[in-house]
Amino acid sequence: MKVIPHSRPSLGKEEEGEVLAVLKSGQIGQGRIVKKAEKSFANFIGVKGALLVNSGTAACHLALLSLGIKEKDEVILPSYVCPALLNAIGYTGAKPILCEVKRTDFNLDPAAVKKKINRRTKAIIVPHLFGAPADFKELAKFKIPLIEDISQNIGGNYRGKKIGSLGKVSICSFYATKLITCGEGGIAFSDDEILLKKMNDLRDYDEKENYLLRYNYKLTEMQASILLVQLKKLSSFIARRKNLASEYNEAFSRYNIRLPSGKGHVFYRYVLRIPENRDLKKIILLFQKKGIICRRPVYKPLHRYLRQKGFPVTEAIWHSALSLPLYPSLRKEESKRIISAGKSIFSQLI
């Protein structure tokens, strides 16, 4: 029995051809193709500029620095997210302020955010978790710079605007499991030319007139060439994800589980919730025995790493959220296996 992985990148001959062309050119460090990709991504999002870097964490770090975030400042972010954002805040010396998320879409809860704001709050990091757009309209009312994390919703829309064009600065990861990928990599977007200039200066340390603490955050030409191909495929990737999600929703609608839904969802992850009194680890193991790798979509909430209490919604979600395999390269026979296994396992929850 062949195992169906939780994630699988969607790469093909076109990406392979572009990488070979770069290798033959002899120019593999940051250069012309990186600049071309930056322009293509900026045009796609609809902002003035973009900067490619070597990871999403690097993009977040540069975004925070461009906003002047420093020691004793506070940055709000959800607890229900991976540690990359927490690390980026740590690099600046600022204090992370963890916040609750909404039960419906797992995104930052504006009501909870409001309670955490004070005079030291200098930024709010807003991920669009699992592909569902966050409530930017409400979060923007706080008049605090928003760093939009579009790693899980690039290509999506919110109230008629492109995801990525909403924040003061936006960031995205191109890690191997993301909507589009080059293995590693990231990007920062902004309409603010001053912020773009600051990030561009800090991205590379060499050939500068003065000395500042700068970074080696550059991306290679090979990675940029892959991203240019992946960007062209993004709309078809999202269409495939939505079709698979519809198949899953139809198949699992009769069972005692809460299915994902929502306008603007691009289904980076298909995350459902089982009853909170059921054993999530056992269900993951049951899928594994059928050759299907399912996971908690967030390995561990940030408040658990920081040993903080008082996050009941996040805790409830963490104990009940299950992510099924869903990606463009998932074959028809694989999705049928997942649906068949899901029906068998979820029928035990009725």
TrEMBL record:
Keywords: Pyridoxal phosphate
Molecular-function GO terms, alphabetical: pyridoxal phosphate binding; transaminase activity
Coiled-coil portions: none
Pfam families registered for this protein in UniProt: DegT_DnrJ_EryC1
SUPFAM superfamilies noted in UniProt: PLP-dependent transferases
Catalytic-site annotation from UniProt: K178
Top-level lineage group: Bacteria
GO biological process, any: polysaccharide biosynthetic process
N6-(pyridoxal phosphate)lysine: residues carrying this PTM: K178
CDD domains, per the entry: AHBA_syn (cd00616)
PANTHER family documented for this protein: DTDP-4-AMINO-4,6-DIDEOXYGALACTOSE TRANSAMINASE, TRANSAMINASE
Family: Belongs to the DegT/DnrJ/EryC1 family.
Name used for this protein in its record: Aminotransferase DegT
